[in-house]
Specification:
- α1 crosses α2.
- The strands form three sheets. The protein has a seven-stranded mixed β-sheet with strand order 1-14-13-7-4-2-3. A four-stranded antiparallel β-sheet has the order 9-10-8-11.
- By secondary structure, it is of the alpha/beta class.
- The N and C termini lie close together (about 5 Å).
- Bound molecules: ribulose-5-phosphate.
- Ribulose-5-phosphate binds next to α2 and α4.
- Keywords: Isomerase.
- This is ribose-5-phosphate isomerase.
- It catalyses: aldehydo-D-ribose 5-phosphate = D-ribulose 5-phosphate.
- Its EC number is 5.3.1.6.
């Protein structure tokens, strides 16, 4: 189910070229229209989700929303929400979330996602797995035919203990797909990137399609040393896509 929600500008007007960040903001604001007073909200992480959290803060300040409880998906989002005065809680106290809004790195035609290039995939998966509605907000550059097919990374969070061993096992698992497993590092100093949960991230790069995504997910999760991966299969209920021609909404 797809609906074009904003008509393209008329032919007579000069085309307006929007930046990627402007498109992200448009998708984020559209998603926040689903937010109602009294909701428990999953607050996503990343440059797109940041716009949504800003907007929720703004509506609270203006008194247009009340009694919101936010469940942040990262320390970064936690800090942002605190600075905006959004009341916060956690999954222990609020195990059922009404609505989560978050970005994604890839979205396939079935609304399966790759997330975690920002490094917050574990908390995102816990929070978004506990919500009744999960609205994903992206600009159109995130749309792919097959997950892992964009040439960008598929992140896997692993424990730091013997990370080379786990990276090797991951690479071997997808040998047929030409997989290369790389430890994520900080560009400044080459040190391993450390997640909010004090783990490492292995980024998997594929030369070929990984095939059955559920089988790939199960195989990754069976490896001791793996904490979680960035494939979010069958979790999104709505994807809002902002593009040059307007905003499209796809529902599960
Ligand atoms: C962080 C994520 C982000 O949602 C994803 O990386 C998209 O980021 P951005 O909105 O900055 O493009 O999964 O772990």
């Amino acid at each position: 189910e797809a609906a074009l929600m904003v008509p393209s500008p008329s032919q007579s007007r000069p085309p307006v070229i929007l930046t990627q960040d402007e498109l992200k903001k448009i998708a984020a604001y559209k998603a926040v229209e689903f937010v109602e007073s009294g909701m428990v909200l999953g607050l996503g992480t990343g440059s797109t989700a940041k716009h949504a959290v800003d907007r929720i803060g703004e509506l609270l300040r203006q008194g247009k929303l009340e009694n919101i409880i936010g469940i942040p998906t990262s320390k970064m989002t936690h800090e942002q929400a605190v600075s905006l005065g959004i009341p916060l809680s956690d999954l222990d106290s609020h195990p059922i979330i009404d609505l989560a809004i978050d970005g994604a790195d890839e979205v396939d035609p079935y609304l399966n996602l790759v997330k975690g290039r920002g490094g917050s995939l574990l908390r995102e998966k816990m929070v978004e797995g506990a919500c009744k509605k999960f609205v994903v907000i992206v600009d159109e550059s995130k749309l792919v035919k097959h997950l892992g097919g964009s040439g960008l990374a598929m992140p896997v969070e692993i424990v730091p203990f013997c990370w080379k061993f786990t990276a090797q096992r991951l690479q071997l698992l997808f040998e047929d797909a030409g997989c290369v497993a790389k430890l994520r590092t900080y560009s400044e100093n080459g040190e391993p990137f450390v997640t909010d949960n004090k783990n490492y991230i292995i980024d998997l790069y594929f030369k070929k399609d990984v095939g059955d995504l559920r089988a790939a997910s199960d195989a990754i999760l069976r490896l001791a040393g793996v904490v979680e991966h960035g494939m979010f299969l069958d979790m999104a209920t709505t994807v809002i896509i902002a593009g040059e021609l307007g905003v499209t909404m796809k529902n599960k």
